[in-house]
Amino acid sequence: METNSITEYxxxxxxxxxxxxxxxNRVLWFFVITGPAIASGVKAGIxxxxxxxxxxxxxxxxxxxxxxxxxxxxxFPAKTMTCLFALSALNVLLVYMSVSHVSIYxxxxxxxxLSLLFCDKFIYFYAAIMNYVLMVxxxxxxxxxxxxxxxxxxxxIAYFRDLIGGFTIESVIMFASGFIIGKLTLEYFRRLFDQYxxxxxxxxxxxxxxxxxxxxxxxxxxxxLIDFTQNIEMSLRDAEQKKHGVDLNAQTHTLMNxxxxxxxxxxxxxxxxxxxxxxxxxxxxxxxKLISADFIDVVSGWFRAQYITVDTTPDxxxxxxxxxxxxxxxxxxxxxHLIRISMTDxxxxxxxxxxxxxxxxxxxxxxxxDDFAIFSIDVNGLKKVNDTLGHxxxxxxxxxxxxxxxxxxxxxxxxxxxxxxxxMAIVHTDRPEEIRATIKKKAAEWHGVYSDEVTMSIGFATHxxxxxxxxxxxxxxxxxxxxxxxxxxYKERGIERRRS
Length: 500
Fold this sequence. Notes:
Layout: H1 3-30, H2 34-43, H3 52-75, H4 80-99, H5 105-108, H6 110-115, H7 121-149, H8 156-219, E1 222-227, E2 232-235, E3 243-245, H9 255-260, H10 269-275, H11 278-285, E4 290-297, E5 301-312, E6 318-327, H12 329-342, E7 351-352, H13 353-364, E8 372-379, H14 382-389, H15 391-409, E9 413-417, E10 422-428, H16 432-445, E11 456-462, H17 471-493
Parallel strand pairs: 7-9
Antiparallel strand pairs: 1-2, 1-6, 2-3, 4-5, 5-6, 8-10, 8-11, 9-10
Helix pairs in contact: 1-3, 1-4, 2-3, 3-4, 4-7, 7-8, 14-15, 15-16
């Protein structure tokens, strides 16, 4: 047993000692009537050799022993000496009554048996040994009297031998029987105590689980308990907590989910029904703590559905499951906001390099549409502006270029800032040349505080013009076109590019 279990078992034995001592004290006080009872026998002629003084003495002795034991019980209720005194007091009473010629042979063997109630081997051994020693002494003391009244014995020694021989055999049988009874009783108590502790721990565990479930019911919008062993479901949010039967042969969804599916966005209903299918749930949740999925409620927005394992079979198959739903619309909005920030260039508010790489990854896994086009754009003369007018002017130039690109592409696609003065655009259009012309036109119309103009070199590649090219090959073609346009720009302006 564990340490705390041993401690509790010892406390049980401690309390048991106190209870047995209390009952034995009552027995001792009850024996006060032994004197008057024997006196009644004396008067009726049943005990001709006993005097009334003996009867009085027996009651007086019992009162004294009961009082002493009572004091010990008050001060030392569970001490071994208190237990031993109670048994010794009973033996003293038996000795006194035997010496007074009151025949009570059977009672001798009751004292060791009473000692078994203390569930203590030492106390039992003490009671059995003391009982036998006092039995021998009493038999020797009373032998002359009995031998004188019984003709079948040739004297004191013959009677003593006959009596002690029978007592010894009976004592050995009693001792062995009592030892076995005591051992079995202790083992039974231990098993009973362990079972009680196990039941109590299970009850405590169940209470804790129910407390958790009650707390969950406050947190979640819906909390449904599904018990596959009893084939029932029960809403923990309902005051009545009414149980409903679940027929796994004919039923694929709980009553709760049959209602919830009417609130799910139409394009998510099939996914929702697959996730909440109770026929496949145990397999999907096997050896897992929980599974979850997010769906959109047409009224309240995003909600999260979760199945949480509460109890399982030894091989991890769920027996009892908690199904919860909770509104996560605000959480989703924050998540989308964080994703948008992580995918957005802080200066220009365009999409950043990370977003561009993620989009390219997705495009690689799909088929390019006929109107697919990719643009490569570079701001001209940024280094010169930074060197002559400062970085504030350079930043203004980048923002101006970003505005021109965003306005020109519009809803036809996405514009990305992929480097300091480098931009990319993924567009769906049949007229990419018009978009390039629009970008240059808006750039020509732009005027800033530090700079009067912004110019960009632009190259593009389309799937229509290069049907066999991959998206990465189209990107390289667009870059090549952009550098051709850049060289043309510097050539027209007579600028040595290395000094720009």
